[in-house]
Amino acid sequence: MRMQAGELFEQEVKPSEVARRLRVSVKSAYQWHQRWRDGGVRALVSSGPSGSRCRLSPRCLEKLAGYLEQGPAAHGWVEDQVWTASRVATSIGRKFHVSYSVYSVSGATRLMHRLGFSPQVPARRVAERDESAVAVWKEATWAEVKGRGRPAGVTSASRTKRASPAGRRGDDGPGAGGAAPRS
Length: 183
What we know:
By secondary structure, this protein is mostly helical. It has helices at residues 2-10, 15-22, 26-39, 58-70, 85-96, 108-114, 131-139, 141-146. Helix 1 (2-10) packs across helix 2, helix 1 crosses helix 3 and helix 2 packs across helix 3. The radius of gyration is 32 Å and the shape is flat. The relative contact order is 0.07.
């Protein structure tokens, strides 16, 4: 796209028109125009993807993918079978001695996506949870607490005023005519 912009600049097309034709922001077109003026078309050549480089070598990435395929239990997390971003970041630190953050753009989450995995969120339940007591509570207590709800019928979308009347009032309604005298 930058190269197309360079060709248009050589034809003396204004940056705002280049932005419109290439469907980019006017700011980008003006930045490209400045680079083109300073260094010609060569200055518009891409310098590659932005952002930080991966801190793991291709060989380490292959190993990491293998570790993820084995599952969390094979690497010390036996509670559940989910790879969270935090667990992956910890595993990378333990296995490769490289620190990855959990959520940043270059972090473990992005690395997982790059390898074809997605971080999971484990279901958090108390170990002492009594499922039968929860079921009884839902049937008995929750029915009482919940209540019956609003009665069916004509309701208003506004909580602050009633539904408006079907027809408009005539000239004798409130607000008709001049202001009422104050007493």
